[in-house]
């Protein structure tokens, strides 16, 4: 690929306020690609990077997906961009669904067609395919109604988890609602399952048309095979394990490192081949104590911990852009598996608090030792401004969410509503970017 001219590949990177988005910007920018940082937030972390030449604000893809697409179309139609790359889950979903319209501007859209994407956005379809390939999966049920849950509740093994078939689901107003797995998503017996499932549906009316899955809980360690595929061929890849998550039972990764296991790669490659997958992808497994890998989910987009792959020698964003330009990406002959990253410091504090409250005082020493060997994801001496601003951006976002919840509660009380305002119930795994 010696004839490449990165300066001709002007790229709009969306979700620039996320870790993964910032990583894509840094990866492309240091290769000489002119990058614009796109985000629903003003002064995103990506726009503060020295590798970003311009920034762009746009409507929220979750709260106003149609307005977001209109804004994106207008920008691509007026300006000369080689490619636009969505990063996070919701943005990737909206962009994929509008891909034909956006590509009419002459810009390459760095996400698959919706026909490809929905095969993994609907987890029921993903697990059905995996089962047909004899890839191990947790016992999974896809009930069509609460009545069906009540009928099967006595016939399944416990514990189980109730999880959304998609991380983001459109509500009745057309907004995308996030669903995560939380401690209240688990059930230990038939009565608790029916109660949990009923609670999810009552507080999320839009899920009645897209009922959640019921899946056996598989204890173990979360591991992933990630990389870049072309028509089902996994051409560049990396593997990682989550050393810590919040909640500790499974969720957002807070401490991660690389690994290698041919068996996990074989499962991932077989599934991607059946999907005929093209583009970035994360295939997540639960590794049990006996070394068995159970498929947990497939994310057909960039994943939150992509900085670890890049730091370990697999520069997925750069390889992806080369793929969009018509080149064949190749994985390096070897990658580092000794890099440890502290991905979410505030999440790691939550992990510590949970472990201490559960009666594990040794967690404090384990937590403090991390600062001696792990690298904070945002930390880059050659690009310090996003690193310096990251804590303030997180505090700003958290304060905004607290304010919204408080105002919602006050509004509910002042209107003397006959019932409580619906609360979002956690129902699907979240590897936040």
TrEMBL record:
Q: Which domain of life is it from?
A: Archaea
Q: Which UniProt keywords apply?
A: ATP-binding, Nucleotide-binding
Q: Where is this region: Disordered?
A: 408-433
Transmembrane parts of this sequence? none
Q: Which residues form a coiled coil?
A: none
Q: Where is the ATP-grasp domain?
A: 127-325
A Pfam family it matches: ATPgrasp_Ter
User: What protein name does the entry list?
Assistant: ATP-grasp domain-containing protein
Q: Which organism is it from?
A: Haloarcula saliterrae
